[in-house]
């Protein structure tokens, strides 16, 4: 790293951490920027811990202040190539001229997970309400893989119970494929996690379910959205009715906004 002759290292965390700071020091950077009132002397440009962190996008914008950059946080943007979208379109069959709704069923944290049976019921209610097509997303791999557990079994169970409705699995092997697949959707449902921010980054209106994570800090940023804060910090306690109501509310709001524009 030192061969790169870095001028500045930024510790991109809501508070400096010992391990991250060690890497910043190993880089040999002349300046180190980090958040925290108790930052050690190695941090040349400490950012005071704000009394109200706000959203992570707002907090991280403060890391640019020592560089003379005072702009407010803009929307999150991820850029998908046309060929990536074409490639995934060729792999899956999608009904034309109907809304495409994405259901992302995976979450690393147990208290962020919604049950397969509820996804099944929601998918049926959505397709009964209007003519639409469902795309199913999940973390690839078996749930007994100790290194990288996935939700292949959960996805297969949902698909088996939804053979009577238009639903298509979208297996993805990397983030670029997930970005391309999600970009095909008109609206997305997902728990908090990386997939949530990918959905937002590709510009998809998103319904986000939050369990034991801070929705105000990690919630959808600068996108049409609905946030459900689960009772007892457990997404599994959200009912299908709770989620369906917010999903429809968001869809109606997006349609109204598009009509006005």
UniProtKB/TrEMBL annotation:
One Pfam family from the record: Glyco_transf_9
Protein origin, superkingdom: Bacteria
Keywords: Glycosyltransferase, Transferase
GO CC terms of this entry: cytosol
Molecular-function annotations in GO: ADP-heptose-lipopolysaccharide heptosyltransferase activity
SUPFAM superfamilies from the UniProt entry: UDP-Glycosyltransferase/glycogen phosphorylase
A biological process from GO: lipopolysaccharide core region biosynthetic process
Gene3D superfamilies xref list: Glycogen Phosphorylase B
Stored PANTHER family: LIPOPOLYSACCHARIDE 1,2-N-ACETYLGLUCOSAMINETRANSFERASE-RELATED, TETRAACYLDISACCHARIDE 4'-KINASE-RELATED
Protein name as annotated: Glycosyl transferase
Organism per entry: Proteus columbae
